[in-house]
Amino acid sequence: MASTPHYLPAGLPAPSPTELDAPFWEGTLAHELRVQRCISCGHMQFPPEELCKRCHAWDPGWTAVAPRGRLTSWTRIWHPVHPALVDHGPYLAVVVTLEDAPAIRLVGNLLGDVHVDPPMDAPVEAVFEDHDGYTLVQWRLCE
């Protein structure tokens, strides 16, 4: 787990936390990866919901998980999805299965050489990218 200079260019919209996902964004500010964990049954879930997907208890709690996982899927993006990314491609978008919560998958960017195909099921770790007032989660292959 590390901090990095900005991978993404300026001009992208900042996250707009809601009451439901604010604990996730508070965690990223602290360089901590947080997911919901049901107080009643212990089930971990993300994205956040108002109730547990397993036992349907209301108001699940939050817990920190290891900022590590495995590369589940990836794609190389050549065409920008936002005007701020016009001169930023290509870049790699990845799906990561969390080590501590294998039912949870997170999407992010993979740092490193964008022209090399990353190996499937490779171990990855979170990299926290601090911006003015918020922090994004990126991923990098483990050494």
Main sheet summary = 6 strands, mixed
What percentage of amino acids are in beta strands? 35-45%
* Total discrete domains: 2
CATH class of the largest domain equals Mainly Beta
For the CA atoms, what is the radius of gyration? 16 Å
Mind telling me which CATH architecture of the largest domain this is?
A: Beta Barrel
What does this structure look like?
The chain is mainly β and 143 residues long. The chain folds into 2 domains: 18-65, no CATH class; 66-143, OB fold (Dihydrolipoamide Acetyltransferase, E2P). The chain has 1 helix and 9 strands; from the N terminus they run βαββββββββ. The two termini are 12 Å apart. The radius of gyration is 16 Å and the shape is globular. The protein has one helix at 22-29, and strands at residues 2-4, 33-37, 44-45, 61-65, 68-77, 91-98, 105-110, 123-130, 135-141.
Per-chain topology:
Layout: E1 2-4, H1 22-29, E2 33-37, E3 44-45, E4 61-65, E5 68-77, E6 91-98, E7 105-110, E8 123-130, E9 135-141
Parallel strand pairs: 1-8
Antiparallel strand pairs: 2-3, 2-4, 5-6, 5-8, 6-7, 8-9
